[in-house]
Design goal:
Blueprint (H helix, E strand, L loop, with lengths): L1 H10 L1 H20 L2 E2 L5 E2 L3 H12 L13 H29 L2 H17 L5 E5 L3 H12 L3 E6 L2 H8 L9 E3 L5 H6 L7 E6 L4 H14 L4 E5 L3 H9 L4 E3 L1 H14 L1 H11 L16 E6 L3 H10 L5 E7 L2 H4 L5 E4 L5 H6 L5 E6 L4 H14 L4 E5 L6 H7 L3 E3 L1 H14 L2 H9 L4 H15 L5 E6 L6 H8 L7 H5 L11 E8 L2 E4 L12 E6 L3 H10 L1 H9 L7 H18 L1
Parallel strand pairs: 3-4, 3-6, 4-5, 6-7, 7-8, 9-10, 9-12, 10-11, 12-13, 13-14
Antiparallel strand pairs: 1-2, 15-18, 16-17, 16-18
Helix pairs in contact: 2-3, 2-4, 6-18, 9-10, 11-12, 11-13, 11-18, 23-24
Length: 576
Amino acid sequence: MNTIVFLVMRRMRIPLLVLLTVYTIAVVGMTLIPGVDDKGLPWRMDFFHAFYFVSFTGTTIGFGEIPYEFSAAQRMWVTVSLYMTVIAWFYAIGTLLTLVQDEALRRTVIESRFARAVSNIHEPFYLICGYGDTGQALVSSLEKRFMRSVVIEIRQARIDILAIENYPIYVPKLCADASKPLHLVEGGLKNSDCAGIVALTNDNLANLHIAITSKLLKPNLTVISRVDSHEVAANMDSFGTNYLIDPFDIFARKLHTALHSPNLLQLRECLTGNIDITSCKPLNPPRQGLWILCGYGRFGKAVYERLKTEKDIRLVVIEAAPGMTGYPRGEYVIGRGTEADTLQQAHIEEAVGIVAGTDDDVNNLSVVMTARELNQNIFVVIRQNKAHNQIIFEAAKADIVMQPSQIIANHIWVLLTTPLLVNFIRLAKRRDKLWTNQLISRLQKVLNNTTPNLWEISIDSDGAPAICDALSREYNLINLECLLRDPRVRDDNLPCLPLLLVRGERKILLPEETESLAMGDKLLWCGKRGAQKWMEWTLRDPLVLVYLSTGEIVPRSYVWRWLQKKWQRKGMKNEK
C-alpha cells in the first residue's frame, strides 16, 4: 500500500502543484480586485467567499455573482480564473488517466491485492509455481478435495485461463516470475498456514531457485519440485528438497512394473488415477522380443535405461539428431521414425513393441500410424506432450499413453493428500501375483463399480479425539472393527478397506479387523466417497464410539441420561 501511495504522489506531484498555484492566484486576485455593493459603496470580497466562488466556478457549474454583482474588473478576473482552473483540471485529469493506465502502478496494485488475498487465508494451502498442464491438473485435483491453493504463473494467458475456471474455492493468482523471492513471499511463503510449495515451471533453473529460496526462508516447509535433469536434481537434493519428481523416470518405472507385475500396475493406476477399478484392465506388454524406441532425448534415455536391463528384450533406437542427444550404446538408426524406410531399417516387422517418445505430438502420432501399417500386432507406447491433444491421442488407441503433466500431477496429489500410499505400493511390490489379485477382488467387491476414494487418519487428539479419549482410559481397547462399522446401523460395515497401518517403524499391510489401535497410529483407507464422512463421525463423537464398540445407546442430553440411570436402578431393585 505504501508503494502505491508513493507512485501516485510522485506522478501527481506536478499536476497537484499546478492546481494549487492556479487556485491560489485566482482566490488572491478575487480578494484584491475592488467591487461595489448594493448601496454603491466600494467593497472587497473576503478570503472565504473568494475561495467558495472560485471553487464552484472552477467546476464550470456557476451559481451566480455573490454576494453582490461584480464590477467589470471582477468579471474580467473571473473569466481569466475560469480558463486557468479548467485548463489546470484538464491537465490533472489527463495525468491521472495516464497514471491509471501505467503498467508499473497496475502491477503494484495487482501484487498488493494478491498479497492481501493470500494473507486472508487462515487454513492450510499450497503455493503452486507454474500453471501449465501439470499445474492445472494439480490445482483441479486439490479443488476436488476442497484444499486451498495459491498460483504464481509467469504467462498472463495461463492466468486468464485460471480466472475463468469454475473452482468451488477461490484461487489467488499472480502473473509473475516465481523464481524471484519477493513474489514467493507475496504468495505466502512465510505464512504460517502455507503447508508446502510445488515448483512446476518448465525451467529447471527456475525450479531450482524456488526450491533454494523456500528452504532458506522456511527450512521446515515441504518442497516438491519438478526436475528432468540429474545435475539440477542433485543440486536441489543438497538443499534438502523433500520430493524431486522426474516424469520420465516415473514412467520408465511404470513401464518396467507393467513388464513384471501388470496386476500391481493395475492396482496402482486405479488407486491414483481416480478411475473405476473394474474398468481398469491389466496391461500385458511383451516381455521378450524386439522393441523400437523412437527418440533418444530425456524420455527416451529413461526408458532405454530400464528396458536394457531386460535380458530377453532387444532394443533398437531411432533418433534424428544423435549428435545432440548422444549415441546409444546399442543398435540405432538415424531418422525420425515417421517414415516407413526408417522403421524398416529398425526391423519393424519383427518388433513386438514400439515407444513413440519424441517431444512432438504430431511426430509421435505419425510414428504410431506408420508402425501399425507395417505391423498390426505391435504393442504401442506413445508420449503425449500437450494436454489439449487428448482427443486425438484417445483416437490413436495406444496401449499406454505417457502424459508428463498428468503423471506429475497424480504423483504430487498422492504426496500431498495420501503419502502413505507410496509406502503401500512399495510394500505391495514385495508380494506375489496371487496376493495382488486377491486385493483387487476385495476392492471390486467393496467399491461396487465406483471410483475409489483414498484418505488417511491419524490416531491423535486432532484426527481422532474420541478414540484418543477412549484409549487414555485404562483397560479400554479399540480395534479396527469399530471404525469399519456403520454409525447408522451397527451391524453393517462401511464400504471401505484398510490398506496400511503404520505404527512407529512397523508397517502392516491389510490389517485385520481385530487389530487394536494405539496412540500415534496412521491408517490408509480406500472406499466409497461417503465412507470417509461416516468414519469421521466415529473418530470425533464419543457417544457414537460407545455405541459401535458396545452396542449401548447413550442419550446425549443430561436429562435423558439421568432418567436412564433412574430406570436402570429401578429395574435392578425389581429384580431383587
